[in-house]
Amino acid sequence: MTIASLLGRLSALNAVLARWALYVACVCLSGLLAIVVYGVVMRYVFNNAPSFVEQVALLLVISVAMFAAAAGVRDATHIGLDSLVAILPDSIALGCRIVVQILTILFAVALVLGGAEMALSVRSDTIPTLGIPESFRYGPIIVAGVLITLFSIEHILALSTGKEVARSWH
Description:
Elements: H1 3-44, H2 53-74, H3 83-86, H4 90-121, E1 126-127, E2 132-133, H5 139-161
Antiparallel strand pairs: 1-2
C-alpha cells in the first residue's frame, strides 16, 4: 500500500470522525447552555437549586473542550505560530511542520495514557449526584487523544506527499 492510498483511506475516515467530533461538541455545548440556564432558573426563580447541575455541566465542558480540540487539530484551526516557519527554506519548514505533528502525537498519547490511568484509579468511585462512575469524566479525554493521534498521522502523511488535509467542516 502506497502512502498516497493510505492517506486517502485515512483522510476519508478522519473526515467523518472530525465531523462527528464537532457534532458531539455542538450537542454538548447546547446541553451545557440548557443545563446552566435550568440551574440558574431553579436557583434564583424557584429557590430550589438541583445538586446535579454542576456535575453535568462539568462533564459537558470537558466534552466540548476535548472534542472541539480534536476537530481543531484535524482542520488546523488551533492556535499556531508559524511566522518563523514561513520564512524558512521549504525543506526546513517541512521538517518543522513534521516535528510539530510528532509533538502533537506525543501530547495526544499523554492524554490517552493519563486519562486511562485516572479512569482506572477512580473506576470504583461514583459521582454521587449522578450515580455514574467517576471514570466517565475521563472518557472524552481518552477519545480525543486517539482522534488527535489519527489526525496528526494524517497531517504527517499529507506533508510527506505534498498534499493538504481538506477541512471536514465547510
